[in-house]
Amino acid sequence: MSSSDRPTGLIAKSGIELLTFGTPNGHKASIILEELKAAYGKEYTFQPINIMENIQKEPWFTKFSPNGRIPAIVDHDRNDFSVFEGAAILAYLTRHYDPEHKFSFTDEDDLSRCEQWVAWQHGGLGPMQGQANHFYRLAKERIPYPTQRYVGETERLYGVLDHQLSDRDYLVGPGRGKYSIADIANFGWVNVSYFAGVDLSKFPNLEKWWKRIEERPAVQAGLKVPSESKIINSAYLRRLKEDPEFKENEDKLKELGNKAKEQYSYKYASP
Fold it and tell me: The GST N-terminal domain covers which part of the protein (predicted)?
């Protein structure tokens, strides 16, 4: 359920209401909500918050997200309790609505490990790749140093994930691991690797993990909330094959990125 009009306030009276946009952080919330819907029948309402129009800065929204960023949720079944920040949303929703711990853990050590990988993403991968997005693709002035600095740091962090997944299918859990919010938190960012100038195929364990998660029906549904994204890897790779002009522009970007690395003698290393 969603509203197609420009949001000006909450629209639901019960259940979870998600205020979001099609970004890696937004997808964390929509994916876990779709997983809970598939697992338990937990319905939710969403509203698109177009960050290009600065809706996230409007007073009605900052009431629920003081930092003026998406996503945010409001739990109408718990006295309209609101939660902002993707990591906090993942923890809140599994704490209250994952009674069988399908996406979370009861073992104290695995719970801590899960918290560690969510914190790692929240404090490292997200901020660094966000800067890589900006300087590699969006900055009006092409500046070589921060381009190679942030793309390189994102590659280093991908190497950390790749190593963690060298002998397991998921980041946390006994044996080869169990799909959890640790994976959801990191997937949102790995799923836009090419947009940031990072070639996911250079990280084979991570690429297999990405494909494994992307194939989940609830993940596919979550990636379409509030609408289909054009920057996720699958859409990017498809466009690269089908749109010669797009490919030409991407090749130019890649060349600029490689020159920036050469200028500052960048060498990949991880961790």
Answer: 17-101
Q: Is 129 helix (H, G, I), strand (E, B) or coil?
A: helix
Q: How far is CA 206 from the centre of its chain?
A: 15
Domains in the chain, CATH or no CATH each? 16-97 (3.40.30.10), 108-264 (1.20.1050.10)
Cβ count near 139 (within 10 Å): 13
Q: Average pLDDT of 194-204? A: 98
Q: Phi, psi (5° rounding) for residue 48?
A: -75, 130
pLDDT for 5 = 81
Alpha carbon distances (Å) from 22 to 18, 49, 54, 167, 191: 12, 9, 14, 32, 12
Q: How many helices (H) and strands (E) does the chain have?
A: 11, 4
Look at residue 212 in the predicted model and tell me its pLDDT.
98
User: In b/e form, how buried is each residue of 179-207, taking b as 16+ CB within 10 angstroms?
Assistant: bbbbbbbbbbbbbbbbbbbbebeebebbb
Is the pLDDT at 3 greater than 90, yes or no?
Answer: no
Cα–Cα dist 203/156, whole Å: 11
Nearest CA-CA partner of 44 in 8, 5, 71, 6 = 71
Measure the N-to-C terminal CA separation of the chain; round to a whole number of Å.
43
d(CA 95, CA 27): 19
Instruction: Tell me the pLDDT of the chain averaged across its residues.
Output: 97
What does each C-alpha distance from 261 to 139, 159, 248 come to in angstroms? Answer: 17, 17, 20
Could you read off the pLDDT of 9-59 as tens digits, one per residue? 999 999 999 999 999 999 999 999 999 999 999 999 999 999 999 999 999
